[in-house]
Every structure is written in structure tokens, then in C-alpha cells.
Amino acid sequence: MEANQIQLESYYCRKCHSEIETNNPICPQCGRKMQTQSQIKGLGKVLVILGIVISLGSGLFVLGALAILLFAKNSDKDIAMAFTALSLFGAALAAGITATIGGAWQAKHGRTSKKLVWIFFGLVFLIFILGRVFSFLKN
Ligand SMILES: [Zn+2]
How many domains is the chain built from? Predict the structure, then answer.
């Protein structure tokens, strides 16, 4: 590499969300290795694919658990198992959806979003409410 061809690149720190034009990929605030926008975007695309796979997989189990809660005449043990499955796979579904949304955001903007954690907890809360509604209907 010739010295006069060195260009500053836009690096982004995923920990403190700072964006700096530099040729030294170490974050001046936290010392973490920073990433270029294209690296962040590439990771975003991987996240989208992972998120969709996780969402589809756990979504099937969530639907299965909901179907058991909704239609089947079950013993108390089955109901308890369906609720456990609903909360477990519900949390996985929330993580999958969050990864998909976050990955898409990341692939588009080249930076991570701070709002993701709220999206995740919002989804978990929604699924929790859904579970409570079914539990209410069954009693
Ligand atoms: Zn940093």
C-alpha cells in the first residue's frame, strides 16, 4: 500500500455507538475494535437470515402450543407443558424477530440500533400477555 493512497474509513463502535473517520480501528472511548460500515452491513445480512430461521422454527412451536391451548381438551399436565413451551419458544421467537429487524436496520444503515433491546422486551411482554389471555380463557 502506498502512503499517499491511505484513506480514512468510517469506523463504527458497536459498544458505545460512536462513529469516527480514522485509519486506526480501535475505539478511542472504550478500546474495542471498531468495524467499517460494510462489515456492519454484512453482519446485518447474516443476522436477518439467522433471525428468519429462528423466527420460523420457534414460531411453529408457538403456534403448536397455542393450538393445544385453544382447541384440545387437555389434562392439567398438558396445559402446563403448553404454557412452558409457549413461554420458551415465545422468547426465542421474540429474539428471532428482534434479530431480523435489527439485522435489516443494520444492513441498511451500517450501524446498530439502540432501540433493539426495547423491541425485544416489548415482544416478550406481548407474548406474556398472550399467555395470560389464554390462561384466563382456560380457567
Ligand atoms: Zn467504543
Answer: 1
Q: For residue 12, how far is its CA from the centre of ligand 1 (angstroms)? A: 8
CA of 29 relative to ligand 1 center, distance in Å: 5
Domain assignment present for residue 6? The answer is no
Specify if 3 maps to a domain: no
The helix (H) or strand (E) run that includes residue 35 is strand 35-36
Q: Which of 54, 45, 49 is nearest to 109 (CA)?
A: 45
What is the distance in angstroms between the CA of the first residue and the CA of the last residue of the chain?
A: 72
pLDDT in tens, 53-82: 999 999 999 999 988 888 877 677 788 888
Domain assignment present for residue 27? The answer is no
Q: Tens digit of pLDDT for each residue in 6-47?
A: 678 889 998 888 888 988 899 999 999 999 988 999 999 999
